[in-house]
Structures are given as C-alpha cells and as structure tokens.
C-alpha cells in the first residue's frame, strides 16, 4: 500500500472522488503544512495556522498505478491558481503535495511536469516534505457520502465527480 497526502482546495472534493476510486483503500481528510500544533477546522479556515486542507489517499499499486492517482489529482482541481479553488480562497486551499520519501517527491515532480501540458498557465502546486498529518474532525470524513444533497456537494462536488467519470471511468467504482 502507498499513501499520498494531497491538497487541492476543500478536502471534501478530493475525498468524494478518491472514495469511489478502485484500488483506493482509505481516504482521510486532514490538515498539514502549518505551524499550529492543534489545528481544527475553524482555525485552519481562518488562514492563520499555515495548514492546508488535505486528504491522505491510501491505495494498492497492484490495482491502480500511482500515476493515475496523481493525474486524477491534477484533473480534479485547478493547480494553476495560487491559494484558491473556486470560491474557496486562502492558503488553506492551496494546491499541495506532501512527500515522505525521495521516491514520492520524484513522482510528484514528474506528475507536475506531465500534467503541465494540460494547463495554459504554470502549475503552482507546492511540493513539500510531509510534516505531521492531523486527522480532521469526524464530520469531515467521507463528507459527500454522508451529505450528497447538501448545496456544496450539488454545486461543487458533483461536477468534479462528473469530470472524473468522464476521464477516469475505468478506475471509478460508482
């Protein structure tokens, strides 16, 4: 099993797609990359902790290649906007990839290079060593599955799921 820690705006969006991805065994919403030793949703949303909203995606490489997980990441958010994804604005929504090993760092850098050709503007995704990962509150775990009728899910997440189904249907189990 391999785990990537990725931030691409609100963690609910990435969580919703990766939860439906074949070969993914776990998706945990959380916070990382900041200085506050006790982050919570409200402090992270204030933009003062330095943390990003992220997901820890654990997957079986014998079922789904790491490159597919990473290419999906770049398809599911706009990696060319600094500290912003749609209406979500602030450093907590930055495009980010947090590595634990040199191998992961190389995979992340290769994914940026590979996906740059799909974007007119430069990719600004931050690639950093993973500091401590803080699990987000239970309310945020598997949010879309628990609240599919909620407005944010309907307006923001459903289009991302539709895009994932269009380009990654071979890997989605729903």
From TrEMBL:
EC number: 1.8.4.11
SUPFAM superfamilies membership: Peptide methionine sulfoxide reductase (SSF55068)
Entry annotated with the keyword Magnesium: no
InterPro entries xref list: Met_Sox_Rdtase_MsrA_dom (IPR002569), Met_Sox_Rdtase_MsrA_sf (IPR036509)
A molecular function GO annotation: L-methionine:thioredoxin-disulfide S-oxidoreductase activity
Catalytic activities: L-methionyl-[protein] + [thioredoxin]-disulfide + H2O = L-methionyl-(S)-S-oxide-[protein] + [thioredoxin]-dithiol; [thioredoxin]-disulfide + L-methionine + H2O = L-methionine (S)-S-oxide + [thioredoxin]-dithiol
Keywords, comma-separated and alphabetical: Oxidoreductase
Domain Peptide methionine sulphoxide reductase MsrA: 4-154
Active site positions, chain numbering: 10
PANTHER family: PEPTIDE METHIONINE SULFOXIDE REDUCTASE (PTHR43774), PEPTIDE METHIONINE SULFOXIDE REDUCTASE MSRA 2 (PTHR43774:SF1)
Family, similarity comment: Belongs to the MsrA Met sulfoxide reductase family.
Described function: Has an important function as a repair enzyme for proteins that have been inactivated by oxidation. Catalyzes the reversible oxidation-reduction of methionine sulfoxide in proteins to methionine.
Name used for this protein in its record: Peptide methionine sulfoxide reductase MsrA
Organism of provenance: Arthrobacter nitrophenolicus
Lineage of origin: Bacteria, Bacillati, Actinomycetota, Actinomycetes, Micrococcales
Gene name as annotated: msrA
